[in-house]
């Protein structure tokens, strides 16, 4: 993720340096001219207020589009025997499979896809299949979305929320997936998810960025089910909203611990929501 807003972080650091210089020089000035003490302290106060305003206005923005490994990097098909999978080749090191029936991620892997079948090679029988090491394999049996809230007689505890995949669109080299969430018989909400590859230095990072197109009522809370695997530690999963852990587990790969987490991410009503998963290549060796 990158910082945006005004003042930007690159402006805050020089500002803090200026404050430091004023303080150091101010000590000597106050020694010889006590009368300027009040003005000096007011300047310090104002500078700190500027810093606080700048920090409060910072927001998270999406990462830029990564270099795609192939021209056709988003397509729907049967994949590994599962129908309605939207495959995204976000990077040569990061392929993601979305189950569009349940509106969630069912597979994350590295390397690519064997494109076979009538559409690709005019041969009947074989269907497309993944190749390469798998970071995550998570068969989804019900909607990946949950709802909590309501008022009066309509109040309810958290429950599964019917989700409908409404297609996708491209913008600035990136892709946005649209989901319609059915809250009750009369109410629905629409959210977009922007998945992206980010270079995590130690491994590929999957960025998932959620923005409301049609938000739910204010008394309703929406949660996305997040399944993450192939992580070096529990801190490899980062987010900017409430996250309810449902389960976590640890396994060894070449004597190295690999973590998996399943949880619910609350989608903010008043700001974009993100979750990042830093993957460890050791998980697929």
Main sheet properties:
6 strands, antiparallel
**Terminus-to-terminus distance:** 28 Å
Strands side by side in the biggest sheet: 12-13-14-15-20-17
Number of domains: 2
> What is the alpha-carbon Rg in Å?
24 Å
Secondary structure tally: strands: 20
Structural class: alpha+beta
Q: What is the general shape?
A: globular
Which CATH architecture of the largest domain?
Distorted Sandwich
Order of helices and strands: EHHEEEEEEHEEEEEEEEEEEEE
Poorly predicted runs: 1-24, 26-38, 47-59
Q: How many individual helices?
A: 3
CATH fold-level assignment of the largest domain: Beta-galactosidase, Chain A, domain 5
CATH class of the largest domain: Mainly Beta
Can you give the mean pLDDT? Answer: 83
Percent of residues in beta strands = over 45%
Characterization of this structure:
- The chain has 285 residues and is an alpha+beta fold.
- It has 2 domains: 60 residues; 211 residues, Beta-galactosidase, Chain A, domain 5 (Distorted Sandwich).
- Helix content is 17%, strand content 49%.
- Strand 13 and strand 14 form a beta hairpin.
- Helix 1 runs antiparallel to helix 2.
Q: How would you concisely characterize the structure shown here?
A:
The chain has 285 residues and is an alpha+beta fold. It has helices at 9-32, 37-56, 118-121, and strands at residues 2-4, 59-61, 74-79, 82-91, 94-99, 104-109, 112-114, 129-131, 134-137, 145-149, 156-160, 162-171, 174-182, 188-199, 204-214, 220-231, 237-239, 243-253, 256-267, 273-278.
């Amino acid at each position: 993720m990158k910082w945006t807003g005004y003042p930007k972080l690159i402006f805050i650091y020089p500002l803090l340096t200026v404050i430091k210089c004023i303080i150091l020089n101010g000590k000597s000035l106050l020694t010889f001219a006590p009368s300027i003490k009040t003005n000096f302290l007011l300047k310090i106060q104002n500078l700190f207020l500027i810093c606080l305003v700048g920090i409060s206005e910072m927001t998270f923005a999406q990462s830029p589009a990564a270099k795609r490994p192939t021209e056709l990097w988003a397509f729907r098909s049967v994949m590994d025997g599962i129908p309605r999978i939207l495959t995204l080749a976000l990077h040569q090191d990061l392929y993601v499979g979305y189950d569009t029936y349940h509106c969630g991620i069912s597979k994350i892997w590295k390397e690519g896809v064997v494109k076979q079948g009538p559409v690709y090679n005019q041969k009947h029988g074989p269907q497309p299949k993944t190749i390469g090491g798998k970071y995550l394999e998570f068969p989804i049996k019900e909607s990946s979305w949950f709802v909590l809230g309501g008022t009066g007689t309509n109040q309810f505890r958290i429950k599964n929320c019917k989700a409908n995949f409404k297609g996708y669109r491209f913008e600035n080299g990136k892709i946005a997936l649209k989901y319609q969430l059915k809250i009750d018989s009369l109410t629905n909400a629409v959210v977009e998810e922007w998945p992206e590859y980010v270079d995590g230095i130690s491994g590929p990072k999957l960025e998932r960025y959620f923005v409301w197109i049609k938000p739910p009522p204010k008394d309703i809370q929406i949660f996305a089910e997040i399944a993450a695997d192939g992580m070096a530690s529990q801190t490899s999963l980062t987010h900017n909203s409430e996250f309810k852990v449902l389960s976590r587990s640890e396994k060894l790969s070449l004597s190295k611990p690999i973590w998996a987490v399943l949880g619910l991410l609350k989608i903010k009503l008043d700001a974009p929501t993100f979750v990042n998963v830093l993957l460890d290549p050791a998980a697929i060796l």
